[in-house]
Design brief:
This protein has 12 helices and 5 strands. It is α/β, with parallel strands linked by helices. A 5-stranded parallel sheet has the order 2-1-3-4-5, with helices on both faces.
Length: about 240
């Protein structure tokens, strides 16, 4: 590799202001090198560190505070899901995007539940990775459309149970609309266009509903919408 990483015992590479700072965690050095070359070739991205296992990924994320952590699921010492949970426990602000060979929806479910912002299939890195990183860096969740419907159906029964028990979350109908559209990945401006609101008003609704639900990150909103079946309910209502 042309540039030394923190794993080489060298100081981490500094990223210019405005660049998305990325930590690459994968146990295959050749794959990491390829990712570094791809990402450093983007005008708005810079790889600031690497890690070869999950435990090292947590340590590097804690040290370097990257914007995005690209995290392999299958790593030694501590796997990707374990690293995700540990970063959540430590309250790290870095947003994790999982890289995996597994296309099964079960993995996406586990990633979201562990606090991840989505995943990218390794075989689709050349087509999906840049978009996924930019999406996650904005605080949004990257979901494959084909997987979303199947994944959301997992929560339909839980929603029915909550309704049967009379559980309410105290949200207004407008707040529920903003929550669902946020979870679907729409920006504040796009939500405003759909609901005839200003982007600033949408942000106000989002801030208020997050306070009501005691949520702190955009990924938390997605997990809540999944858990309660709100997204599935919207999809069932659409023509």
């Amino acid at each position: 590799m042309g540039q030394a990483s923190p794993r080489d015992g060298q100081p981490p590479q500094e990223a210019a202001p405005g660049l998305i700072r990325i930590l690459v965690a994968d146990d295959h050095p050749i794959f990491r090198a390829g990712l570094r070359a791809l990402l450093d070739g983007q005008p708005d991205m810079r790889v600031v560190g690497e890690a070869g296992n999950g435990l090292e990924a947590v340590a590097r994320a804690r040290e370097l505070r990257p914007d995005v952590v690209l995290l392999d699921l299958s790593m030694p010492v501590l796997d990707g899901l374990g690293a995700l949970r540990e970063m959540q426990r430590l309250g790290l602000a870095s947003r994790a995007l999982v890289l995996t060979m597994h296309a099964e929806n079960e993995y996406l479910l586990r990633v979201l539940e562990a606090g991840g912002y989505g995943y990218v299939l390794k075989q689709a890195v050349d087509t999906d990775l840049f978009e996924a990183i930019r999406t996650v860096a904005r605080g949004e969740v990257f979901l494959y459309p084909a997987a979303t419907t199947l994944l959301l159906s997992r929560y339909l029964e839980q929603r029915r149970e909550s309704q049967a028990e009379g559980q309410e979350d105290g949200l207004s109908e407008r707040e529920r609309e903003v929550l669902a559209l946020t979870a679907e990945g729409y920006s504040s401006q796009e939500i405003g266009d759909r609901l005839a609101l200003s982007a600033k008003t949408v942000e106000t609704y989002r801030t208020r509903l997050m306070r009501k639900l005691n949520l702190h990150h955009r990924a938390d909103l997605v997990q809540y919408a999944l858990r309660t079946g709100l997204l599935r309910a919207r999809m069932d209502d659409e023509p």
